[in-house]
Amino acid sequence: MIDGETLLTAFQHHAAATPGKRFVVFEGRTWTYAESLARSEAFARGLSAWGLHPGERVALYLETSPDFLFCCFGAQLAGAAVVLVNNQYKQTELRHILSDSGARLCVTGGEQVAELARLRAELPALARALTLGPELDAFIADAPNVLNLPKPASSDIAYIAYTSGTTGRSKGALLTHRNTLSNARSVTEAWQWTADDHLLHMLPLFHTHGLMVGIHGTLLRGASCELHRHFSARIALDRLRSGGFSLFFGVPTMYTRFIAEALSCAAMPLPLRLCVSGSAPLSPATFAEFERLFGQRIVERYGMTETIMNLTNPVDGERRPGTVGGPFPGQEARIVDLKTRRPLGPDEIGEIEVRGPHVFAGYLNQPAATAECFDGEGWFRTGDLGQVSPDGYFTITGRARELIISGGYNIYPREVEEAILTCPGVAEAAVFGQPDPEFGERVCAAIVRSDPALTAEAIVEHCRAELAGYKKPKRVFFVEALPRNAMGKVQKHTLADGFAQS
Ligand code: MCA
Ligand code: AMP
Q: Whole-structure pTM over 0.70, yes or no?
C-alpha cells in the first residue's frame, strides 16, 4: 500500500475520472461523485479556516443523510479523526464519548440538537456544535474557495469508534486510514464489487456495517448506493423488486423481517447479485427460508469494530449456513486455546484471533486494554469463541465476554446495570440476555429493590432517559437477592435459567 493512499484519494480519483457518476441517491436526489467531493472539500476548507488542526476530533451525532457522509469525509480531508456517535445515544453515552474523545466540533441535527445542548456545559473541549440545515449550509458557503488541505498519512486516525463496554464505559477504537482502505479492498475483492454495483443501503451510518462496509466499499470501487433513513422490510422489498439494485447488506433481524413480510405479499426471487448478513448470528433456518422465498443464498460474514471485517463465506463456492466462512483476502484468522493461547486444530473450540492490516491501532487513552487484546505477534483477540472445519469454514460458537446482541446492536450488560443503579429505589441490578425470535437476543434485568414501591415501568423509563432505547430492558423482574458464587460474582446463568422457566 502506498503511503498517503487512502479512501479519500480514491474518492478524489473517482470525482476526477467519473465526475457525473452517481455516488448516493437519497430521498429522490442524486449526488454525483463530483458534487459529493465538492461539498466534502468545502466542509474541509471551512473546518480548517475555522481553526481545526490535523489530528483533532470531529464528532458526528446525526441521522442518516448525504451530509453525514460529506461531513465525515470532509472532516477527514481536513486531517481530523471522525468520532462516530449512535444518534440514539442519550446523556450517559454522549457525555462519555464526547469527553473521552475530546471532540472539538460536533455536527448534529434533528432531535440530537437538544440532547447535546443539555450537556454542553460539561464538555469544555467542545468548541462548536454545528447543526445540519441552514447553519451547516452557511458554514460551507462561507468556506474559502482556495485553501491547501493537509494530506492524511496512512497511519493517521480516520475514525474513533466506541465499542466494548465491559467496564461499563465504552472504549474508542482507533482505526487508521490504512485499516479502512485495506478493509475496503479486502471486502470489495471478496464480494467482487465493481463500479456497476448499486447497493440498497438501509443500515445506520454510525456503525462499521453501514459505514465501513456499505459506504467504503461503494466509494473505493466508484459504485453507487441508495441511502435510506430507516430500515423497512416493505419498502426494501418494493425497491429491490423495482430492479436496478445488485447488493443488499443487513443484520439478521432484517432478513427475518423480510420473511415475515413475505407472508403478507407474494414472495419472489429478488433480482440481486448478492445479499450479505452480519453483525449477529444468522440462523440456518433463516438462511434456508430466505433462499426458499427469495431465491438468494445469503453470504454470512463476521466483523468487529476493532477490525472491521474478518471472515466471509465465498461468493463463488459453497455458502455454508451457520458458518462465517474464511478470512478475507490479505487477512489471517485462527482458533487458540483460551488458557494456553496455543493454536488449535480443526473442530476444536477456542477463541478466534485475527491478524492483518485491517486490525485497529488500539484503544484511545487505554494502553492496558490495548496491550491485553494483542498477543505480541500482532494477533488480535476477538473475544469470540469458534471453531474451524477441516476445509476452512469458521463457526462462531459463543462469546468469551459478556455481550448481548439485539438486532445487530451490541449491548454491554454492565453499562445497563450502571444506568439502572442510578434509578432511585434500586439496590442491586443484574442484566443479561435471553433469546428473542425477532432481535436474536433481548435485554432482561433482575432487580433487588430498596424501595418496594418501585415499578418495572419506572426502571424502563429511567433507562430510556439515560441510554439509547434499544438498551432498555424488555423484561424486568424483582428478586430478594442476586445469586452469587463464593467469590461474590453474580451467577447470571442461574438468573437466566430461572427466568426462562418463569
Ligand atoms: C430498535 N429497537 C430495538 C432495536 N432496534 N430494540 C432492541 N434491539 C434493537 N436492535 C427498539 C427501539 O428502541 C424502539 O423502542 C423500537 O424498537 C422501534 O424503534 P425503531 O428504530 O423504529 O426500530 P426498527 O427500525 O424496527 O429497528 C430495527 C433494526 C435496527 C432495523 C433491526 O435495530 C437496526 O438498524 N439494526 C442494525 C444495527 C447495526 O447496524 N449494527 C451493526 C453494528 P421504543 O419505541 O420503546 O423506544 S457493526 C457490527 O456489529 C460489526 C462490525 C459487524 O460485524 O457488522
Ligand atoms: P462490535 O464490537 O459492535 O463491532 O460487534 C462485533 C461483534 O458482533 C463480534 O465480536 C461478534 O460477537 C458479533 N458478530 C458480528 N458478525 C457476526 C456473525 N456473522 N455471527 C455472529 N456474531 C457476529
A: yes
